[in-house]
Amino acid sequence: CPDQKRSLTVARLFFLLSGEHPSLPFSELEAILEAEGYTYRIVRKLVQVLSVEADENCIKPVVLRSAMTRVCCLELFSCNASLNEILDETRKASLEGFLKPGESFVVRVRRIRSASPHLVSGELEQKLGELILNKTKRTKVNLKNPEKTFFGILTENQFVFGLKIAEILPKPFVERKPRKKPFFHPTAMPAKLARCMVNLAQPKAGELVLDPFCGTASILIEAGLTGCRVVGFDVQPHMVRGSLQNLRHYGVEPEGVAVAEARHLPVVEVGHVVTDPPYGRSATTLGWTTEQIVEGFLSTIGEKLRRGGRVCMASPKSIRIGKIGEGLGFKHVESHFVYVHRTLTREIAVFE
Q1: How far apart are CA 266 and CA 219, in angstroms?
Q2: CA angle, 54 then 309 then 170, to 5°
Q3: What would the mean pLDDT of 96-116 be, rounded to a whole number?
Q4: Which end of the chain has fewer CB atoms at under 10 Å, N or C?
């Protein structure tokens, strides 16, 4: 955790998270808050929803950095997913500061994984809109271009409701798919997962992120786009050239990208390491097994990792990278398992 936390005016916030993985979106969001120095308290975790007490300004870095957060909201209330209870809570809720006289608004409700099928989203939106209209002065409903959007989520027999502050669109990550980059290799990591791994390592803008197996620069690109300085190495010259091509295509100018073997890096000290070592038939491992590569690198980087620094590293689940790191003296913070295809599930491990 950062040594100094920001002073804050506490607000109740909730975030709609991506449903593509059960744990990564939650860990990524918390890592962003930690990296940016925000004090927060988790109020509740529901399927695809995290509610916290924190400074409302923490939404800004979440919008800038997150790959797996979809909607950020200022919370009005939460309750059981009962129509009567939802309407009662809406009648009691104070809308001061949420909607000004003369403003237009709309109500939208999102259902997670078929939650609360007894409630019809369209009808619920209409009833909530009517209540809000009656509680406020000179406001109006605008379904196409509202000034404010009230947003509700039905999940796990609960309803969470508030004012939408920001929405994060997945389109930029789709546009940075491996095959859309100038230099492609079949082992390239998807942009969204690469961004998530960068966030798990908790760098701040301006801090240096190292990828010692930079490949096609997927990780370095995502780190650079969040404002970090980046440096990468790869043992293969053509991969280094490809990395530079991809980095410059997305406007990221690295501190350096060079040919080097990961166990012998020309680096004195580093605070944030994010990497995906080679494995599989499409990767070149120079005769080393994936386990040997992982163990050899972690043995070396431990001496160079700054106090309080983090390593976020991917490898096949079968390697048990978490256990390897613990055996080498690292603190194993967390692991997440990401299914890729029938023969590969990645373990995303974070070490300090």
Answers
A1: 19
A2: 55
A3: 96
A4: N
Q: Give, as one character, the DSSP assignment of residue 179.
A: G
Provide the Cα torsion 54, 5, 334, 254; round to 10°.
Answer: 110
Q: Which two tokens stand for residue 22?
A: 């059960």
User: Which amino acid belongs to residue 70?
Assistant: R
Contact status, residue 99 vs residue 142, Cβ threshold 8 Å: no
Query: CB–CB of 59/13 below 8 Å?
Result: yes
Q: What is the pLDDT of residues 300-351, one digit of tens each?
A: 999 999 999 999 999 999 999 999 999 999 999 999 999 999 989 999 999 9
Helices 237-249 and 218-225, packing angle to 10 deg = 30
d(Cα 18, Cα 300) in Å, to the nearest integer? Answer: 35
Contact at 8 Å (CB) between 230 and 207?
A: no
Q: Annotate 8-76 with DSSP letters as a single string.
A: --EEEEEEEE-SS-SSHHHHHHHHHHHHTT--EEEEEEETTEEEEEEEGGGHHHHHHH-SSEEEEEEEE
CA nearest neighbour of 108 among 167, 67, 168? 167
> What is the C-alpha separation between 275 and 348, in angstroms, rounded?
10
Q: Could you tell me the two tokens for 259?
A: 């040919």
Q: Which residue has the tokens 């798990």?
A: 200
Q: Let me know if 60 is exposed, middle or buried by CB neighbors in 10 A (0-12, 13-18, 19+).
A: middle
The distance in angstroms from the start CA to the end CA of the chain is: 11
Handedness of CA 71, 76, 80, 83 (dihedral sign): negative
Residue 134 tokens, joined: 């009656």
- Residue identified by tokens 């506490």 is 10
* 49-55 vs 10-17, strand pairing mode: antiparallel
